[in-house]
Amino acid sequence: MAGPGPGAYPDADAFVTPARERLAGTTRRLLDAVLTAAVDDARLDTAADAAEAAIVALTPDPSGAPTLPRRAERRHEDYLPRSPLVGALHPGAPPLTWEFRDERFVGHGTLGAAFEGPPGYVHGGWVALMFDEALGIANVTSGHPGMTARLTVRYRRPTPLRTPLRLEAWTRERDGRRISTTGTLHAGDQLCAEAEGLFVQIGAERALEYFGERPTAPDPVDPLP
Which of 92, 115, 130, 214 could pair with 111 in a Cys bridge, judged by C-beta atoms 3.0 to 4.6 Å apart? Predict the structure, then answer.
C-alpha cells in the first residue's frame, strides 16, 4: 500500500501498526523523562539531538509548510487510536486501559509528570478532558453517540499523580437528540471528581458542515478495541 504524500495523514486502516504503537509508547515515556530527569546538560543535549533526528525521520518534507489535511475516519472506532485519553497511538495520552462493562466505561491507569498541575496532583484541565472523552466513549458504546454540549465537573479533592486511578462513565438517559451522561474519578476509595455531560446528536447536514464529506460507512461493528 502506498504511503501518504507530504502533509497527508495515513489512511485510518493503515494508521494502526505495531511500529507506530511502539513509537507512541516511547514518546510517552520521553515526555515523563523530560519533566523528571536529573541529569547534566550534556546528556540533555544528547537527548535533544536524538529527538531532532527522530523528527527529521518522521517528516516527509522538512522544508514544506505544515498542513492539516482532513482525516478519513469512517467509524467511531477509527478515532480510538488517536484518542487523547485511550489512544494507544497518541503519545500524549495517559497509559490508560479500559473496557465497557455492565453498560459502563471503566478505565484504570496511573498518571505521571506530563499531567501535573498543582505539585503532586493531576491538572484540573486534564481531569475535565478525561471526563469529556470517557463520557463520549460511553455514549458511543451504548449506541448513543453525540457531541458535547455541556460538561460540568465537580472537583471533590485533588487527583494524585503516581497513584492508580479508576475512571467510570455511563449514559444515564436519552431524550430525543439529547443524551445525559455521568462519570466519576476515584483514587482507591476516594472520590476525586465527578461529572455530568449533556451531548447532542447532530444530523447529516450539520455533520457535513463540521467534517466535510466522508466515505460511506461500512456495516456497524463492535466499537471496542
Answer: 115
